[in-house]
Design brief:
Blueprint: H1 2-16, E1 19-20, H2 22-32, H3 34-56, E2 60-69, H4 80-83, E3 86-98, H5 101-169, H6 175-209, E4 219-220, H7 237-258, E5 263-274, E6 284-293, H8 301-368, H9 373-408
Length: 411
């Protein structure tokens, strides 16, 4: 029984001592995402569609076997000149489309553009997923960090409570002073409990977004999100969509022109075809032929289709220009927020130095019985508020960096 208890303690200690980093959750999210898997399968399907399209332009060989008997009974029946009375045919037919190389290449380009669009959508999906995971990891990591320094404050306050209790018993401080300080300690215990609950919720949401079913209480490594080099707007993945849309429309214009060119097919068959009317054993043979289709007039549809595509190209260009302006403005706003965050951090750090010095001074005064407990409690509250503000400001800064990296860097 004793060894089972020790084993249980070891397992619990091990589960609480686990530490995971950001890459762990990003990898889990990518592996568990059905949308990313869907895009991977669509990309494979697009490759197969391209191969199927090329197969259409290879010789199409078919085998046909037909047998027919039309009897004449008492002078009634089909005209034998039309039905031949009976017939049997066993033929192998060949149909080869003769199409220009440019048209085949254009159709291949069409499938390639479809594949590139799917690859692009998969990249954007990955970026969206990574951004979501990073954002939640930052939030959870901030909660963990707040637990750390609030735990230190709670430990400090409990140590000071023991000292204050002895001094109160020796009539150095009033009972009311002790009660005021005890209330501060209890308030800090409540804050610490709420932070732990918040961390558990943040961690649970992080696992949910990663596609994991896990309620294990683990420690997260400190979030270190590095600001990556900003790329020119024409190099980012989001601009690629406009480029692909433009190429698709240009390729459609080529298709329109190719559809108005003559099309030629080579036909042929070989085998046995007989009505058994005369020397049926000699009715083996073959035939060849050509099929030619020439467009003449379709009500000016070609020009109208080109005009429709030109309008779509103009619309695509307008969206591209608008996105480019918004992209630049977005980065300006995010970089401004980043500078503001740095300015706030400098102010908070200077306030922290004063708050720490005030706490240290009060700790010394407490030992001599000269501390004002109310002022000491206020100083502790200020220190906690400043520490929380620093943590929140750092979390905001990392969120801004995550947003900048999302918009300006191709993962």
């Amino acid at each position: 029984m004793k060894w089972k208890l020790l084993l249980l303690i070891f397992i619990c200690f091990k589960s609480f001592s686990q530490e995971k980093d950001l890459n762990y959750f990003i990898t889990k999210a990518q592996n568990n995402s059905p949308l990313i898997k869907d895009y991977s399968n669509q990309i494979k399907s697009a490759t197969l569609d391209s191969l199927l399209n090329r197969a259409v332009y290879k010789p199409q060989v078919t085998g046909n076997l037909n047998a027919n008997y039309a009897p004449i009974i008492n002078g009634f029946g089909y005209d034998s000149a039309l039905s031949n009375g009976q017939s049997v045919s066993g033929l192998v037919g060949v149909n080869q489309k003769i199409i220009g190389k440019n048209r085949i290449n254009s159709q291949s380009d069409s499938f390639q553009l479809i594949k590139e669009a799917l690859v692009l959508n998969q990249k954007i999906t990955l970026k969206d997923l990574n951004k979501t995971i990073v954002a939640q990891y930052i939030s959870a990591s901030a909660s963990s960090e707040q637990i750390g320094f609030n735990q230190k404050i709670a430990t400090l306050l409990k140590q000071e409570t023991s000292i204050l209790k002895k001094l109160t018993q020796n009539a150095v401080y009033k009972q009311t002073d002790y009660l005021i300080f005890s209330a501060t300690v209890k308030q800090q215990d409540l804050v610490l409990l709420q932070l732990k609950q918040q961390y558990q919720n943040d961690l649970a949401l992080l696992n949910y977004l990663s596609g994991e079913t896990d309620t294990t209480f683990v420690h997260l490594k400190k979030a270190e999100i590095i600001l990556k080099n900003i790329q020119p707007s024409d190099k980012i993945v989001f601009m690629k969509q406009f480029e692909l849309d433009s190429l698709k429309l240009q390729n459609q214009n080529k298709f329109i022109d190719y559809s108005y060119k003559p099309s030629l097919s080579l036909l042929g068959d070989a085998g046995y075809n007989s009505s058994f009317a005369y020397q049926a054993y000699k009715n083996f043979g073959f035939s060849v032929g050509l099929g030619l289709s020439i467009p003449i007039y379709d009500g000016n549809q070609r020009t109208l289709q080109h005009q429709k595509n030109d309008a779509a190209l103009a619309t695509n260009l307008a969206y591209k220009n608008n996105f480019n302006k918004q992209y630049k403005q977005q980065l300006l706003m995010l970089n401004l927020k980043l500078k503001q965050s740095a300015a706030v951090e400098n102010q908070l750090q200077s306030q922290l130095l004063i708050a720490d010095a005030l706490i240290e001074a009060n700790k010394k005064l407490l030992l001599t019985g000269d501390a004002q407990i109310t002022e000491y409690s206020i100083a502790v509250g200020n220190l906690i508020a400043i520490k929380n503000a620093i943590s929140q400001n750092n979390s905001n800064k990392l969120q801004i960096i995550n947003e900048i990296n999302y918009w300006s860097f191709n993962d």
